[in-house]
Protein 1
Amino acid sequence: MTIKEQQDEIIADFDFLGNWDDKYEYIIQLGKELPLIDAQYKKDENLIKGCQSRVWLHVDYREGKLFFTAESDAVITKGLISLLIKVLSDHTPKEITDAQITFIDTIGLSSHLSPTRSNGLLSMVKQIKMYAVAYQSKSLQS
Amino acid sequence: MTIKEQQDEIIADFDFLGNWDDKYEYIIQLGKELPLIDAQYKKDENLIKGCQSRVWLHVDYREGKLFFTAESDAVITKGLISLLIKVLSDHTPKEITDAQITFIDTIGLSSHLSPTRSNGLLSMVKQIKMYAVAYQSKSLQS
Amino acid sequence: MQDNATIIEPSMLDIEKIRRDFPILERTVYGYPLVYLDNAATTQKPEQVLKAMDDYYHTINSNVHRGVHYLSQQATEAYEAARHTVADFINAAHTHEIIFTRGTSEAINLVAACFGKTELRPGDSILVSAVEHHSNIVPWQLIGEEKGATLKVIPVDENGDLIIDELDHLLKGVKIVAVNYVSNSLGGINPIREIIAAAHRHGIPVLVDAAQAVQHLTVDVQELDADFLAFSSHKIYGPTGFGILYGKESWLNKLPPYQGGGEMIKTVTFEKTTYNDLPYKFEAGTPDMAGAIGLAAAIGYVQELGISNIQQAEHSLMTYALDAMREIPNLRFVGAADATHRAGVISFLVGDIHPFDMGEILDKQGIAVRTGHHCAQPVMDRYCIPGTVRASLAIYNNRTDIDRLTAGIRKAVKLLA
Amino acid sequence: MQDNATIIEPSMLDIEKIRRDFPILERTVYGYPLVYLDNAATTQKPEQVLKAMDDYYHTINSNVHRGVHYLSQQATEAYEAARHTVADFINAAHTHEIIFTRGTSEAINLVAACFGKTELRPGDSILVSAVEHHSNIVPWQLIGEEKGATLKVIPVDENGDLIIDELDHLLKGVKIVAVNYVSNSLGGINPIREIIAAAHRHGIPVLVDAAQAVQHLTVDVQELDADFLAFSSHKIYGPTGFGILYGKESWLNKLPPYQGGGEMIKTVTFEKTTYNDLPYKFEAGTPDMAGAIGLAAAIGYVQELGISNIQQAEHSLMTYALDAMREIPNLRFVGAADATHRAGVISFLVGDIHPFDMGEILDKQGIAVRTGHHCAQPVMDRYCIPGTVRASLAIYNNRTDIDRLTAGIRKAVKLLA
Ligand SMILES: Cc1ncc(COP(=O)(O)O)c(C=O)c1O
Ligand SMILES: Cc1ncc(COP(=O)(O)O)c(C=O)c1O
């Protein structure tokens, strides 16, 4: 699936969920399920600046594609991260740099991307994009 | 005349003057007439702190009474000073410390006594009172 | 809940009437009527305060002090009357002991910088407590770094109480003590009388951070014998961007000026400048006239209600809230659990729910609380927690607010646990 | 007067319509309709500004940045949008180059203190001009005294023009230049482009005091290549107690922090504190949310009218005023006599009438002007005068105001001369 298709699928899933409780219940469920980041990667270098909740992000580069694992100590953030990873993992650096992340807005959690919230999710998106740019220029050189 | 009588006389004089122009004209006239302070007394020690206009005040003590001469570089202030001196000069220290200066208020120039105006007139009243207190304690001692 | 609640005396105040002075309380958030329990961060403003500022701007707005003209004199009188209102409110001995600042933070920075400049030497120390707001830590670190002085800390116990048994020992080498009256992160009322008495026995001055105190308790600077005291307008129903530094005349006269500018000087030449008298020596630049007038109106509002009536009403609501929250399984309070040692603030956690998650689910229900470290990271480090959820009260909060809060917490627990 | 007046183009602005935005202009003073010509001290505020602040307090008032809840996010967005509006207004390259302060004075003090701390050594000098406001002299004296640095002064000629022929020579040993764009005492527009260019040739940064410029002229920090620039909200139709420091990103990153407190730090322990990114590094404590929103509304108001339309209208009124005043016997202008080199301010004296007397008689006629040294004593010393009478214009002033002023001066002359 493309990044766009992945996002559309998430949006469709959320359309089924009527009110905010159901949406949050679903995200929280995802947050509880997210495979924990490998313990060795839950270290300070992988910590993303975020005032309210902490987020760790690890990246692997295999066969031209980027794979992410992540963790947060806040479960709602973790749930959103899990969606974000589903959307962006297993794609080429170029696909990731080109991607528009729209689903968070569409499902009504845009406040998590507000620069004023400083909760780590926006920083995480930025960090993923930076990794993608870095690997893209690397792959262009090699 | 007592200080009270002097003030009443001034107030009565001003009652004849209808509008503000006439009152100011009168005060300004007085300001122009005030016998200049003796040149030797127009010195920094006699300068009274006042932001907008400068006021010099000199005091003489003769036969149990205080006599004031004064000067200001602003003519309206000078006119008011001339009234003030007319009221307070040639009185005993005790009469001066006991006196209530009400005429400035009554003739409608109370703003000159506003602590926020810092134009020297209020400081001058305070200074005169301080001289009076000083000479009063002196005369009590001797 | 009602049944086993502590006995609550009827309040002298009509809270529903008070609420009508705060129209923002009628708004909705996500379709729910707003429950505003973030008052320790900033309070809402009554119409009386907004009207006082509007009136100022509509009738006498003008630069103060240096003007001969009518508006300027009216503005100056209103501005200086505000200073008088503040002096009266905290019972300062002199009106000129009241310095207008931008807020508590600036007030503390002013003292730290000016005191530090002349009084701190390498090896000296500054004593703060373990429950300070960053604004009462960082200014001292900044000047300490410059002067080679270090911070010492009055420790805190598990209940959030300062441990003051060792105070005499701690005070060795200390040049100034800076402590808050009420902690913004835990809500505990600190034993500042004891701290001030101990410091004064050693001839050490004390700055009291009263940012979370003046809106809840009677504060009398002479009775406390505080050398300096700071608070913010925006936390006591006044406008943003304004605050107070009280300083004893003798100290304020002793300290060098802080900032340079208009009004704080007497004469200026390029070679030499002489400074103005108190309070102007510490007020550089055009002051915040509307801010002063707004704060005076806020203090007037508080005085009309009566600070002891406010204290009683808030105590009663606090008791109600603590009782109700105690019923929630796995909820634990951070800091003192009883209402008597507390003003305004309830910090809590439920199970291992992250405060940020709790805050978000409460927000979705229209309930505004604060989550995180509350600018008091050392307090969080002390308890080894990432932060707390903080509900904080003001005089317009009612039992409905508390019922909504407890119901909201229960709902959040159901979703999150 | 009209006959020999300079040709005046019709203004693009409807001044009478503008006046209706400022209800205070309808008030009377001593029975006369108010003529407010003390705009260089502080301007009046349009309803749009008061409404923006009222709306803020009525709908989203909340502490910014640290809150998860809805109001706090709304408040933060409005607050940061205000920063964006300011950045856009002076064409800053980055929004985070805009630091919110209490006013011009605080902004200059901030730069003086922080720049001084790391960049000034004994024997260095700071270059100011002979026509500075005290707020751009005293902060440099304070830090100079601490660091052993001294002030040097760009001289001024009889007409009030800065003498910049010797600038390259003057700049020797100078670490920073601080000059105003428009002088508040004389109204002259200073050659800051030339001063900045000369300073930069020597690698010296320049702070521009734009307190009397932004409300009258287009100010573009990138075009000017200013390193720092300061102005006050209350002089550009905004609320009191608020102001702006612009700094080039590179300089702001280089300078140490100013005050300590919440929001300006990243992490705090009692041992060590790390500072936040720009602009927060320089903003300690709860900010003045309403102030920021009020200033943004004021800038919006100015932008809607168009700063070049304002400039043209004010120029036209200035020409009218200077022409009319020139007819008054014995009236002499202090500073440039023509409208082209002047913005907003007319400083004058008549014969040997004391400015204080003139101001009082004008006041009695409902005309508000300022008298005295205008916080620029060195300027008065330069001209050997105790002060001036200063009439200063804003966009709501009209020819009636000027006619009332000239008639008022004539009446004062009749009484006083
Ligand atoms: C040129 C100039 N600089 C600085 C200031 C100081 O501004 P504020 O008093 O708003 O801090 C003023 C006005 O008072 C001014 O006119
Ligand atoms: C105890 C305490 N001290 C200081 C401050 C700082 O006050 P402000 O941010 O208004 O400067 C606060 C609030 O933020 C506080 O709660």
Note: DSSP finds 14 helices and 17 strands in chain C.
Protein 2
Amino acid sequence: MHDDHSHHEHPKYALIFAALCVFTLISIMADVVQLPYAVKVVAVLSVATCKALCVLAWFMHLKFERAWKYVLLAPTTILALGLPLALMPDVGEHYYTQEVPQMDDYAEHLEHRKHAAEHHGEAEPE
Amino acid sequence: MSATGVALEHGHDHDHAHGAHGHHELSFVKKYVFSTDHKMIGMQFLFTTLLMMMVGGALALGVRWQVAFPWTSMPLFGPLFAESGGQISPEFYTMLFTMHATVMIFLVIIPVLAGAFGNFLIPLMIGADDMAFPVLNMLSYWFMIPAIACFGLSFYFGGAAAGWTAYPLLADIRAAAPSSGSAQTFWLLGVTFVGVSSMMGSVNYMTTIINMRAPGMTLFRMPLTIWAMLITAILQAFALPVLTAAGFMQVFDRLDFGGPLEGIHTVFFIPAGLVVNNADPTVGGGQPLLWQHLFWFYSHPAVYIMLLPAMGMVSDMLACMCRKPVFGYKPMVFSMSAIAGLGFIVWGHHMFISGMNPALGMTFMLSTIMIALPSAVKVFNWIGTIWGGRLQFNTVTLYCAAFISMFIVGGLSGIFMAAVPVDIYFHDTYMIVAHFHYVVFGTTLFGVFAGIQFWYPKMFGRKMNETLGKWHFFLSFIGFNGAFFPMHMLGIAGFPRRYADPYIHPYLEHLMPLNQFITVSAIIMGFGQFLLLYNFGTSWFLGEKAGRNPWGANGLEWSAPSPPGHGNFDVPPVCYRGPYEYSNPNNPDQDFWMQTDPPKSKKKPEGDAGHGH
Amino acid sequence: MRKFWCGFFIFWPIAAVVYSAVSPQFNWWFPGPSVTELGQRIDNLFYLILIIVTAVFIGTQVALGYVLWRASHSKAERAWFTHGSHNLEVIWSVVPSVILLFLALYQMDVWALFRVQSFFPKEALNAPVAEVTARQFEWRIRYPGLDEHGVPKKLHLKPQPDDLYTVNDLHVPIGRPVMINLRSDDVQHSFFLPHLRIKQDAVPGQIIPIWFKPERQGNFDLACAELCGWGHYKMRAQLIVEREVEFQAYLQKLRADQNYDGHATPSAVAKKDE
Amino acid sequence: MSHAPSHAVPPIKMGLAIPNSKLCMWLFLGTEIMFFTAFIGTYMVLRLGSKGWPTDPEVTHIRVAAGGINTFVLILSSYFVVVAHEAMSLKNFEKARAFLKWTFALAVVFLGIKSYEYYGKIDHDILPGHIAENDQQAKYKVLKESEKAVAWRLDQLVSKAKSLNAFEKLPEPANDPSKLRKALVDAAGKLKGSDKPAEAAAAEEFKEFDEPDAADPSKSTMFSRFKAMKKDIQSETVPLSEIQHQLEGLKSNEQWGFVFKSVHEPHPILYGNIFASCYFLMTGFHALHVIIGMILFAIVLKQPKLEGWHDFVENSGLYWHFVDLVWIFLFPLLYIV
Ligand code: HEA
Ligand code: HEA
Ligand code: CUA
Ligand SMILES: [Cu+2]
């Protein structure tokens, strides 16, 4: 069962590996350096996507496979992106008033404490 | 998985070695119990599901009894649950319909289509000697057994009682349904086992259909059954994992509910601060609607998993019975694909009233209504297939005609519910119950009955009895319509489903006689099923002997011996044409032209299915 | 036998249509005309779909019966050899899709009126009449307290000390849009008013507004339509639609009962308050 | 048999030019993608739908460094799989074996770091369902846990008293804590002057359950101080910081502070339970996949000869890369964002 395509040009696996390491460092840097939250999110997620593409293309040899890879991966990819998107309007946001008594009260209370602390110019308790 | 996957393939090669070395008798256990032969596995699925159909049906009759004659002791079955003098308590009623649906959906409809017919037919119809991974295939059957055991245990522990949809928080919080303490957890485990079984089956089917077709069997020469099986497998492979994941979340939510801050359990579906049954407020942060989304993300595609294979099989049988090519082969393929594709984006129609975002409601209404379109194409093509055929009213034809007829009813009632404003009223009434029984029983099960009758000769080498078959058809059809057509009226009258005693509501009081009529019809239909079992059992020994091709059909399976031996084909099949060349004028000898018949002359063009004439 | 089976497949749709047609006479139909205008529009949509669907039903069943009859009585030696017709496929895809698209778009505004808050009548949106909290297995109703003139105050999301409470007994005034805040304490329930064609799930952790404008006086059933445990069927309550004055009087009586100190007779307290 | 080459058959291979096993593996990975999509999607929408989410590493005990190292470990192991497969293709089996051993070892390292992280969470009781979401719950949690601790201590001392025969007579009923406490105090009086050191020491311990006059704080015992804290908690007006202070006091006692060792520092985390649910669910299932991958590699490594295992290595490699891929997304989503 040896497939015919196992003798293609050897990709430079070590190079890919190095790239992946660099990507990882970038995401850690993104955490260490103080970035605006949105920028940070976008940055680390795009880095993750790049990493994923590297792994898929070279480590998983998709770059060297024939067209079946599209037929096979397109549905899952669409569904995998679609499911969270479809959940967004309902679970990620709320059309109706959410009511979580314990937490709402407590969040308010924390807010108060913070304000009070600022007012008195002292450090926040805890 | 891959370990098994790969190792299995080695096992497979190994089997061949055996075959080649001559007559190596398999032990009884290897041949009939832990068999890796797709035909035996298919038959195991078939027997199991028929048995389970009786169990599920018995549960349904319990449900029916309570709705028609509340608080009276049930005849025959009463003694089985006689704690309360054979009466059905509300707790027991809740569990009855939950388990009825569970058995019927997870242990009958889904496994009978994909498990029994998928297994038996796929390799035979594409001309392979077995599935790609026979051991994996065997495992997929044997994973049904722990599933059945889990559902049985669920029964034993008082029964899961949150409906087959298992909505949290009723299913999630132990205090909310105290009677279903561990029962609900076992129920979830059972569903997980069914899921693993289906997942194994579906990757196996896809691999087999994609990679193991006989020479000449191009994609558009595949019988519609195979197309349906392929599409079903895709649906299953990509939708099911979501349910499995959600099931795990619910299991973890249920782990321990010793009270807040005691016992470890997750809170995916549990909002904070609920007071259930006067217990302390819950800790949480989760959202109950999340489950509904994840559940229906699987379970709506699942209703097409419960339908598409039957559609494919009926197309094949109709063509054979009418001696006529399937009308619009390619439109049939495309509409099945469209149903599958759209099927992934309509799940929200089960949640119109659930408190979801109204904008989603509109989107889902649009996609749901549009799914009627490919279904319409299929209905019209079936009618077109019969049109101008030479038809014989044997049992197979009757079941197939009923299939089409019932699908129209079930599908059209779906249109009422797909319309959101109308669903405001109909949601969770018997209109829904009527709708889905028309599609799952009226449509799918009639298709399955037809399939049993049609492929029985291939399975056992004998035909089933026609007269008994017709009686079974008659009783099933009459009983079925008597039972489920009036349910539409119940729905219009606003009769809510899952009610142990609806008549305490004044506006429902006058509906009791109608319900009694329904129950009597259901009993007629139920007892009609014994005819099927009797026919199935006795024809094994008494049926008329059938040759290789008793129906004069075209598929590759009919070129194998009946029943096919180990490895299926005595002559390696080659496919020369599409599956529906009935009454082809280029073939003057017979009105069918098997896919394996070599071409008569090299010059004359032959039709591939799908090229219009 | 051929004749019998062809008749069979032609007869049963006829029976179904006849059965449906006589059903209203036996009361196997809607529980009376809708009490709200919105419900009336839902009924109209239902009838519109019913007409379309009946036409399709009869058309397809007749076609099925006809082709069955023709095919089973065919004297031809060979069946008609055809793989289909492109034109027909186009026709029977386009025609239904036009009908279906029309159906889908035609209903949007009723849905919007029922659920989209920006379409709610303004006066209702700003002044919910009551809060209904579902729990296993009853409906708890909270009205806002009354001010010194006996006029209901604004309903707060959080309970107030002077709120008025009842169980399983929802009174609303006739002739003006009424908004209800729907909540649940434990599991999902569903607020189902069959005579008003209204249904909405109560979801723990959410406060869902529902509005309706009752136009007929009377007692109507309120049922639970989402499985909520063994007692699901017995979550029975009533909706009482009454004239504005009666409604106000009811609230005052409620207050009187609630303030009843155990000495005077409740009705006496009520009288004193008036 | 039908595979036996027959000359009548035109040798047309239908389907794709890849082995069944590889096709099946890719299809299976498709299902796996959906499986993790459900988890990751759930996490994202739940988080977006919550009004708060704990992100402060001091609170969540999420260590970016640990996650980062683990990412590196998985990438490296993925690299080794790929070169192992390469070596298999080139029939360089010994080299392949060596690479696979590295992969296996790295998987062990990954799980090691993961368990270290889990340990930190368990230690701080950041477990789903266990986390107090507001001050009130935190206080009650302290109460519950210290009640348990005190009960445990009572049990311990009662058995000790029994073994020393220190009770004059067993209290009736034998499981009434208040009676037991009294019996212990009596026993302490009895043993006080004993010349056996064990008994004298025991007497000291038994005094922990004495309830002296509340008026004199210098005379306070373990039990009286516990009761004072309990009263404060139940009054619901004493702020959490005060309770915290009292608990610290209890814990720091030289004699019996260890009794309260099992009581967790109260720190409420808003949305902590849902956070912990997501964290453990995703990392837990990922770890499970790592273990399955290790089993696959173990199977290969157990083989005396790797000849003929090329496809197996390729497919387990695909699987392993997928596991890596999941982590590539989990890392930023759980540790950084
Ligand atoms: C095999 C199973 C199966 C199938 C095929 C279908 C098919 C359809 N279903 Fe059904 N459905 C279920 C099984 C199935 N369903 C189950 C089990 C439930 C309940 C689950 C539960 O809550 O327990 C359910 C519930 C359900 C609901 C939720 C109701 C509610 O709870 O409020 C809805 C709402 O939209 C719906 C709609 C549809 C539609 C539009 C189709 C369409 O696919 C139908 C399309 C077919 C046709 C329309 C007929 C043929 C077409 C023509 C003849 C052409 C001309 C037609 C027109 C121009 C109108 N179904
Ligand atoms: C494939 C699916 C399937 C099938 C075939 C059936 C078949 C039947 N169902 Fe089922 N049903 C569901 C799926 C199915 N159902 C689902 C999903 C629900 C929703 C549950 C929920 O709300 O969660 C439901 C709910 C449901 C209800 C609503 C309960 C409620 O909401 O309160 C009712 C009520 O009439 C009912 C009746 C029936 C009847 C009479 C049959 C008949 O067709 C059965 C006919 C009988 C047989 C086929 C077997 C014959 C057996 C005997 C005569 C007994 C002999 C027994 C032994 C020898 C052991 N079903
Ligand atoms: Cu409340 Cu059903
Ligand atoms: Cu659906």
Note: The interface with chain C takes residues 94-100 of chain A (CB under 8 Å).
